[in-house]
Amino acid sequence: MLRSRTFQIAVPALIVMALLPLGVDGYILGLLTLAYYYAVFAMSWDLLFGFAGEVNFGPSFLIGIGAYTAALLNHYWLWPIPACLVAGAFAAVIAGAALAVPALRLTGPYFGLVTLVAVLLLQNMIVLFAGITGGEIGLDLPDVLSIDDNTNYYYALVFMTVSGAILFGLAQSPVGLILQASGQNATEAAALGFNVAKHKLAAFCISAFFSGLAGAMLIFYMGTASVGTVVDIAVGVNVIIAAVLGGRRTIIGAAVGAIFLIGAGELLRPLGQLATFVVSAVALVVILFFPGGFMGRILQSGGRE
Amino acid sequence: MRISHKIGLAGAAFGLALAAPSARAADPIKIGVIAETSAISGVGIPNAAKMAAEEINAKGGVNGRMIEIVDYDDHSSAADAVRAFQRAAQQDKVAAVIASYISEVVLALEPWAGRLKMPMITPGAASNEITKRVHDDYDHMKYVFHGYLASTQLADVVCDAGKSLMVNDLKMKTAVIMSEDAAWTRPLDDEYLKCLPASGLKVLDHIRLSPDTTDFTPIFNKIEGEKPDVIVTGISHVGVQPTVQWQQQQVPMPMYGIASQATNATFWKDTNGAADGVIFNMVAAPDVAVTPNTIPFAKAYKAKYGSLPGYAAYQSYDDVFMWAEAIRKAGGTEPDKMVEAMEKTDYVGTIGRVVFLPKEDTFAHGMKIGEGYITGLMVQWQKGNPVTVWPANVATGKMVFPAFTKLSQ
Amino acid sequence: MLALQILIDGFAISSLYALGATGFTLIFGVSGVLNLSHGAIMVVAAVIAWWVAGTFGTGAYIGALAGVAAALACAFFTYRVIVRPIQDSGAIPKEEKEIFVLTGTLLWGIMLQEAVAYLFTDNPKTVRPLVEGVVMILGVRTPWNEILTAALSWGAIGLLYLLVNRTRTGKSLLAASMNPRGLTLLGFEMSNIYVLVWAIYGILAGIAGVLLGAFLGVSSGNAGTLTASAFSIVVLGGLGSVSGSLMAAYVVGYLETMTAYLVSPSIRTVPVLLLLVLVVYLRPQGLLGRR
C-alpha cells in the first residue's frame, strides 16, 4: 500500500520536476539544484534515523569528508570529476565505518554526542591544517560540473531520483524491516536472531555513501568547498530539520522537507534577516501540530495498514 | 537656496520618470549588493550603496537610466553568497555587484564572477589573494576589482604610522603581533614581520588566535609576560571581546593596528566604553576631510541611518559611483566594456583618489596606494569619539591613553 | 607564576561553565529533556542585560536582573509551548519523543538567536561588570570581575544545593530525578515539579548568561557553541549527575586554559573534544554517571 501510494505521488512529481527547465528561469533551477543535493543528505539521514533509530547529529561529518576528499583530489592532483566523486563517496564510507563501529555500542544521547563531536573535530582539523585545506576560506576547484543551469539541474535531479529510489527500495526491503525492528526494540530484534549491530553498521555505511557522494557533487556544483557549505553544524541542523519536517521514516518525505526548507528560505528573502526566523517558526509549528511531517500525513491518509 | 535646488532636481527627475514609459533606455540599471546585513561591519554596505544610488538618480541617473540597488543578505556564509550571486546575475540581471567585507566570501564569489562574466568589486575584504587571482588569470578573473586595501598594503600603513606614532612620539622599541587565524591575516602578518622592524619596532612574538576565541585572558597574559611596548593587532572577526577583556584586565600596553570592528560607530556602546584608547586603521574617518566628499557623506549617512558609517560603507558608497561612471563611459552594461572602462577609473570619492593598478601589477585591479592616492588613517577612540591621530597633516587630535596603560619612557 | 595564572584564570572560566551546565543537567535529570535552546537562552540573558543597562541607563544591577528575568521567561516558554506539548502529544510515539524535543528546542533556539541578531545585530555585546578594577593576587593581576564571576557562580550553585537538600520542595525535586513514578504515588504533582525545575533552570541559565556577558562578551552567533559546550560537559560528567557536571566543568575549563597557555590559543578546544570521545568510548556513563 505504502509503496503504491508513494509511487502515485513521486512519479507525477518527478515528471513535473523534469519539465521545469522549460518554463522556469535559471535562478529557480539553481535553487532547486541545491535543494536536490540537500534532499539526498536528508534521505540518507532518514535511513539512519527513521529505520535504524539512531540520531546522527553529525550528518555533515559524512558530507564534509566526502566533499573535502573530492575537493583535495581535484585541487592538488587534478583528478577528473568522476574519480573525485567515487573517491569522496568511499572516503565517507570508511570514515563513517570508523566512527560507527565503536559509536554504535552507544545509544541515545551518547551516540548523538559522538557524532556531534566528530563534526567539531573535522571542522577544527580543516581550520588547523589551513595550509592544505584552505581553512576558513575553503578550496576553489579548477573543475565544475557545468556552468549551464539546465545541465546542473538535470545532474542533481537524476542523482536525487536514483539515490532516492535506492534508499527507498532498501527501506522497504527485508533489510529495512529488520532495521526498523531493531530501531524500535533492539533486544527483541536480537532475540529473533537478527544481527542488529551488523545491520545498523550497514545502514550507517549506506547513509555515509550517499551523504559523501552528495557532498562531493554539491561542491563541484558550487565550485568551492568550504566549512560553511559542507561541514558546519548548521548544515547538519538543516538536514535534520528537513527530515523531521518532511516526515521521518518515509525517505521521500525527507526530500520534500529539504526542498521546502531551501525554497522557503529563498521565498522569504525579502524579509531579510528574519527569513531564518520565520522558516524555523514554521518548522516548529509543523513539528508541534503535525508530528508526522508533510509526507507522514499524506501517506498515512492513504491507509498504511 | 540649496533646498530649492534639490527640489528642482527632484522635479526634473520626476519629469523624466513621467516621460519614461516611452523610452526603453529608461529601464533601471541594477547593481547587486551582497553583504552581511546583520554584522555590524556589513550593514553599512547596502545602506551606503542606496545613498549613492539616490544621489545619482536625483541628478538624472546614468545615460537617462536610474540606478536600482538590489540587496542580498549572505548571513556571512560563502554558500549563501554564491546563491545570491547567481540570483543577481541570472534572475535579477544586475549589471555589477558590490560584495562583502569578508575575504572568504569574496574569494568564493570570484570564480563565479569569471564564469558568469559579472563585474564585481569588494568594498571591504582585504586578502591579497583577491588581486593575485586577477593577476594570475587575467582573462577569466578580470571582472573582479578590489575596492579596499590588500592585507600587505594595510600592514604598510600600520607600519608607516607606527614609525611616527609609536617609535618617534612614544619612544617604543618592541611589539607583539596579535592576529586572528584567517585568510586575510596571512599576508598581513608576513608584512608586519618585515615592516615593523624596519620602522623601529622589534617583534618579540607573533600570536595567531582562533577567530572563535572568546576568552582572551591567556593571550593577554602571555603577551604581557613578554613585556612589549605595544600590541599590534590584525583582527576583524573578533573585536569587541578582546577589547573589553583588555580593558577589564588592565593590560598595560596599548592596542594598535587593524581592528575592523572598532571602525564602527556602535563599537563604543558594544564595548561599554572599553574601546577608550584603542588605535585602529581606517581609509576614511568621519572627522577628517580626506577629500571634500568625506565629511558630507559621513554626516548624511548619520542623518539617514542614525549612526556613523563603518569602514566598508565609505568604499561601498564610492563603488556605486565608480560603476555608474564605468557604465556611462562604456555606453551600456556590456561586461567586457565595463571592465575596460573601470580600469581607466580616476575618481576622487570619500576615501581618496581611486586608480586601479594594471594587470601586470601583482595587485592587479587593486587600488593605487600612496601620497596623492589612498593613504589611510590611524584613528583612536577617545571618550566615545573616533579621533584621527595620523597622518599629522589631517590629524584632529593627539593620542590619549587610559590610566592603566604604562608607556615606556 | 605561570602555574598560578593558569590556576586563577582556569578557576573563573570553569566556575562559569559549571553554572551553565548545572541547569542543563538538572533538567535532564528530572525530566529527561536535553534542551538545545540552552545557549540561545544564555545569549538572550546577556544581550537583554546589556540593552537595558545601556539604553535606559539603569545601571548594571537592574540590567542584570532584567537579563535573568528574560531568561526565566524564555525557559518557561520553552517548557510550556515546546517541551510539554510534545511530551503530552498522543501523535508522537514514545520512543521518538526524544528526537522531537531535541528538534523542537533546537528550532526554538535558532528562533531566539535570529531574533537577537535581528534586533541587536550579531556583533558581540558586553555587559557592564558589576565591579570594575583589578587586584593583585600573589603577583597575578586579576580583575575583580573575574573573582566576582567565580563567587557568584558558586553562590548560585550553593543556593541550589541548599534548596535541593534542605527544603521539602527541593527534596521532591531530587526524588523526581531518581524515581518519578514513586513520587507520583506519594501524591506529588509531577507537572508542578517540572515547572519548578524549569524555573530554577531559567534563573541559573540567566545568571550564567549575564556573567558570561560581563566576563567575556556574547554574540548571537555563540548560541550553538554554548549549547554544545554545556552538552559536552554534561555528558563528560555523566548525564543527570550535578556533581559530575561540576567536576567535568573544571576538567574542561582547566584543560582549555592550559592548552591556551602552554600549547597555542588556536587549538584551545581540541584536547577537550578528544577527551570527550575517549570518555564516551571507554566510560559512556561519564565520570560520575550512573547507568
Uncertain residue segments of chain B: 1-23
Strand content of chain A: under 5%
> In CATH, what is the homologous superfamily of the largest domain in chain B?
Response regulator
Q: What's the CATH topology label of the largest domain in chain B?
A: Rossmann fold
Regarding quaternary structure, what we see is heterotrimer
One letter per element, helices H and strands E, the order of chain A comes to HHHHHHEHHHHEHHHHH
The appropriate CATH architecture of the largest domain in chain B is 3-Layer(aba) Sandwich
Q: In which order are the strands of the major sheet of chain B placed?
A: 7-6-8-9-10-13-14
Provide the low-confidence segments of chain A as ranges: none
CATH class of the largest domain in chain B: Alpha Beta
Span between termini of chain A: 8 Å
Fold blueprint:
The complex is a heterotrimer of chains A (305), B (409) and C (291).
Chain A: H1 2-23, H2 26-51, H3 59-77, H4 81-103, H5 108-128, H6 130-133, E1 139-140, H7 149-172, H8 174-184, H9 186-191, H10 196-222, E2 224-225, H11 227-230, H12 233-246, H13 252-267, H14 274-289, H15 293-301
Antiparallel strand pairs in A: 1-2
Helix pairs in contact in A: 1-7, 2-7, 2-10, 2-12, 2-13, 3-4, 3-5, 3-10, 4-10, 7-8, 7-10, 8-10, 12-13, 13-15
Chain B: H1 2-19, E1 29-35, H2 44-58, E2 67-73, H3 78-91, E3 96-99, H4 103-115, E4 120-122, H5 129-136, H6 138-141, E5 144-146, H7 151-169, E6 174-180, H8 185-199, E7 202-209, H9 217-225, E8 230-235, H10 240-248, E9 255-259, H11 267-270, E10 279-282, H12 294-305, H13 311-330, H14 335-343, E11 346-348, E12 353-355, E13 377-382, E14 385-390
Parallel strand pairs in B: 1-2, 1-3, 3-4, 4-5, 6-7, 6-8, 8-9, 9-10
Antiparallel strand pairs in B: 10-13, 11-12, 13-14
Helix pairs in contact in B: 2-13, 3-4, 7-8, 13-14
Chain C: H1 2-31, H2 38-55, H3 60-88, H4 97-120, E1 134-137, E2 140-143, H5 144-166, H6 168-178, H7 180-185, H8 190-215, H9 223-237, H10 242-263, H11 270-282
Antiparallel strand pairs in C: 1-2
